[in-house]
Specification:
It contains three helices and seven strands; from the N terminus they run H-E-E-E-H-H-E-E-E-E. With about 150 residues, it is of the alpha+beta class. It folds into two domains: about 1-30, no CATH class; about 35-150, Nuclear Transport Factor 2, Chain: A (Roll).
């Protein structure tokens, strides 16, 4: 039993935030990284996350074949997880705007490109990563964004 406790303690120190399975003769133990939920205010007050959200919206607009640009209407929620970097899973609502979907309008917020009446809406799930301890740069990467059209 003492060997088991030492093994678990040592494994936890080595892999804080990692998911792993420790197996022995008569036991199996699963150590899972913890994911914590984030309030909307916490997301909206973090400039790195908001920068990542705007990058993700631009990515979605570039890959879409829409005449009108989609803009962020609201942040719906999210979660964060710490591995070798911070992983954010964020949910947002996009609305179809009155602006054309072109390079000139990239990055424009809903205040500059208001939503069209009875326009299309989308709910998006995105994965963003940051390296909070990097001394060189504080940047947010868009790993994935998936959007689905919703009914108005």
């Amino acid at each position: 039993m003492q060997k088991l406790m030492f093994l678990v303690f040592f494994a936890c120190i080595l892999c804080i935030g990692e998911s792993m399975v420790i197996q022995g003769e008569d036991y199996v133990m699963n150590i899972v990284a913890s994911e914590t939920s984030m309030e909307v205010d916490e997301i909206e007050n973090d400039p790195l996350i908001m920068d990542g959200i705007e990058k993700a919206v631009d990515t979605e607009n570039k890959k879409g074949n829409n005449f009108r640009r989609f803009v962020r209407h609201s942040v719906l929620g999210g979660s964060k997880e710490l591995h070798e970097m911070e992983i954010y899973r964020i949910r947002i609502k996009l609305v179809e705007s009155s602006c054309r979907n072109n390079e000139i309008n990239m990055g424009r917020p809903i205040e500059e490109c208001p939503a069209v009446e009875n326009g299309v809406t989308e709910k998006c799930h995105m994965t963003l990563t940051t390296s909070p301890w990097s001394l060189i740069t504080q940047d947010t990467n868009v790993e994935e964004i998936i959007c689905q059209r919703t009914k108005n």
